[in-house]
Structures are given as C-alpha cells and as structure tokens.
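testing teh design pipeline on a random one, pls ignore if ur not involved
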C-alpha cells in the first residue's frame, strides 16, 4: 500500500509540474497537419492563422534539398503572364515529399529573335548556368498542383521562355 501511494504521488507530481514539457510529446501533435488542426480550434483571425501555420511549420517541417529522383517528379508549365511577370504552374508528382522551394534556370527568346537570360542580358544561344538560378517559394503537397509567378525584368507578352527545374527543397511526409 505504501508503495502504491508513493507511485501515485510521484505520478501526480510529474503530471502537475511538467505538463507542458512532459506531455507535449506523448499527447501533442505528431506532424504539421495535426499541429495546425489542434492549434486552429477557435481561431477567427487570418493573422493568427498565419502565425500558427508558421509555428507548426517551424516545428515539424524543416526543409532539406530533396533527392534528384524526387525533384524530377516536379513538372510544370511556364508562360509570360504580363510585363516582367513569368507565371508557373507546377505539379508535385511525389507521394512522399512536400515541396517548399523550386529552383529554376530560364532563358527568354524575344520576339525579335534575340535571346536574353532571365536578367535581360542578350546571349548568343541558350545556355544554362550562366547566372544564379531563380528560387521560388511554394507549398506543394504530394500529388498536387500550385500556381505562382516571378518578377523578371525585360520579359513581356510574346516572349518564349525556355526553362527547367534544377533543384527543389522540402520535407518528407
């Protein structure tokens, strides 16, 4: 009897003094989605929702460069949307990776048949790697699509874009 009272008191002490730290791992969210769902209960502010999403992302979703095989499953199309704007529609064909950043290289063929890189410098032929790649922040869940755009100087409607994805980062689900 004396042992069971001691165990009960010890357990009671642990649960009442270390609730946040001691129980967070046992009863708290185990992944990003659970974290967001748990912490969003009762939230009505867009700002609070963004803060919660960022906090859950920081806790559960450390981005790393994804393996080449996985980033080759990211496909898409690019088109000139307007003055200085390149639009991208991207598809994440991975079942295991959420994509957070896509890195592309692109060249632009002007309507006058001259070619420029993404920074507006005229080049003789299509070459990749002459400039720093462009990184695009995205959030593409496995087997899903997203649209985004980039501001690129000297791009205009009628230009033809030659582009490729050269790297990506994200996290494994």
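output:
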């Amino acid at each position: 009897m004396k042992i069971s009272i001691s165990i009960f008191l010890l357990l009671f002490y642990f649960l009442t003094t270390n609730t946040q730290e001691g129980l967070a791992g046992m009863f708290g969210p185990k992944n990003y989605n659970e974290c967001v769902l748990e912490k969003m209960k009762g939230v009505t502010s867009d700002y609070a929702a963004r803060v919660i999403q960022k906090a859950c992302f920081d806790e559960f979703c450390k981005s790393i460069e994804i393996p080449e095989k996985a980033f080759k499953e990211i496909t898409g199309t690019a088109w000139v949307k307007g003055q200085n704007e390149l639009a991208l529609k991207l598809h994440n064909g991975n079942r295991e990776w959420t994509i957070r950043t896509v890195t592309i290289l692109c060249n632009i063929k002007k309507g006058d048949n001259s070619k420029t890189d993404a920074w507006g410098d005229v080049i003789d032929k299509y070459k990749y790697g002459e400039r720093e790649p462009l990184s695009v922040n995205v959030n593409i869940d496995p087997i899903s699509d997203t649209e985004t755009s980039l501001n690129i100087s000297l791009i205009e409607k009628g230009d033809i874009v030659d582009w490729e994805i050269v790297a990506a980062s994200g996290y494994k689900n």
